[in-house]
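Morning run. Coffee first, then this:
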Amino acid sequence: MTERVHLVSLGCPKNRVDSEVMVGKLQRGPFTMVDDPEQADVIIVNTCSFIQPATEESIDTVLEMSGYKTKGSCKKLVVTGCMVQRYGAALESELPEVDHFLGTGEYHRIDDLLAARAGEAPKSYVDTPLYLHDETAPRVNSWMGHSAYLKISEGCNHRCSFCIIPTLRGELRSRTIPSLVAEAERFVQSGVKELNLVSQDSTAYGRDLADGSELGGLMRALSHIDGLEWLRLHYAYPIGLPDSLLRAIAEEPRIVKYLDMPLQHASGPMLKAMRRGVTRAGQERILDRVRRSVPGIAVRTTFIVGFPGETDADFAELVDFVKAQRFERVGVFTYHREDGTHGATLPDQVEDEVKMERQRILMEVQREISAQLHAALVGTEHTVLVDGPTKESPQVISARLPSQAPDVDGQVFLDGPPADVRPGQLRRVRITRASDYDLVGQVLA
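And here it is:
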C-alpha cells in the first residue's frame, strides 16, 4: 500500500538539499509526496537549530504538524535535522508527539525507518555525523526547475566562537569532483540552467581528500558541463581563498562574477573574540585581491552585530568598513547566545535593544550604498535569468542579474515582458528603474 508523505524543510539551502535526498529516496519506495499535511499518512519536519529563533520555529512547526495526528490522516511524525542533532534523545521526552528522530548524519535512513514495522525501529538515530550523499543518491529538486543547489561538502573544521555548526554537522567531508560533476550533469539534463554551490565552508573544499581536489578545479570542471549557463559559489571562508578559484571566476564565462564571503565583523577585538583568525587589514587585503583578480565581481557578505564585548567603537569601525568597501550585497544579523559555543561563555553580553539598533543602523548604511549602486545601472544592458511569475503577483515576471543569487538578493522585475518570456531563459534587458534592492528592466531580446 502506498503511503502519503508530507515534508516540511526549514532553514538553509544545505538543509533543503538533505530534504531533497529524502524525497528522492522515498519516491523510490511505496511512498507518494503530498502538499497538504492534512492528507498525509506520514509527516517529516527537517529542522534548523543554528540560532535560537530557528530552534523555536522548528519546535512550533513540529507542534503544528503533530496536530494532524488528530485532525488529519497522520499516523507517524518524524523529525530530522539540526535540532535533533543538537539536542539528541532528550527530545523524546520533550516532544512525545514525535514517533522518530533522525540526526543530520542519519537522513539516508528515512525510507528504511518508514518501511519498518511498528516497534522494529529505534525512536532516535543520532550519532556523529559521517554520512555524505553522492551522485548515486536519488534527489528531487524542490527549487525552481531551472535552478538548483549543489552541496559540495559537509561539516566545518573552523571553531568560530559564535557558531554551533561543527556540533550539528561534524568535521569537513568533501565530495569528489567526479561525483559532483555527475550529479550536476543529471540536473542540467533535467533542465537546470543555474547551479548554486553550497557547503558550510566552501573555501576548504577538497582539503580532506587525497586526490588533489580543490575549489578552483571543481569550479572549472562544473563550468564545462554542456547546457549549464550560470555557476555560483556561496559561503567562502575568507582565509585561504585559493588563487585558482579567482582565476576560474575571471576566466570561465559560465561562472558568474559573484562571491558570497561571510566576514562577520571588521573590528580587530571582535574578530579575535569571534576566533575568525584575521584582522580588518587582512580582510581588506583579501577583498583587494578578489577585486583585482576579478574586475566587476559582486561581493556578498554578512555581519554579526552585538557580539559579547562589542563596544560603540567596535561598531563604529564596522560601519566605517562597510562604507569604505561598498559591498554589493550585505546581510546583518544580531548575535544570539547559543549554548555549546564559546561565545555563550563570554562576559559583557550586549543588550537586545542595542543589538537591534545597531542592525538597523548598519542596514540603513547598506541601503544607501545599494541604492547608489543600483541607480548607476539605469540605462545599462545586461543578461538576466528569468525566474517567472512572483508569488505576490502572477502577472509580474521576475528575473535576476548574475550578481543576484536566488532567495537572498534582489530581483529584476520585467516591465511589460513579451509573451515568449519563460522561466529558465537568458534574456537581454535594459535597466529602466532602480530601487534600494530591486530593479526594473525592459526585455530587448
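The first helix runs from residue 13 to 27. Good start to the day.
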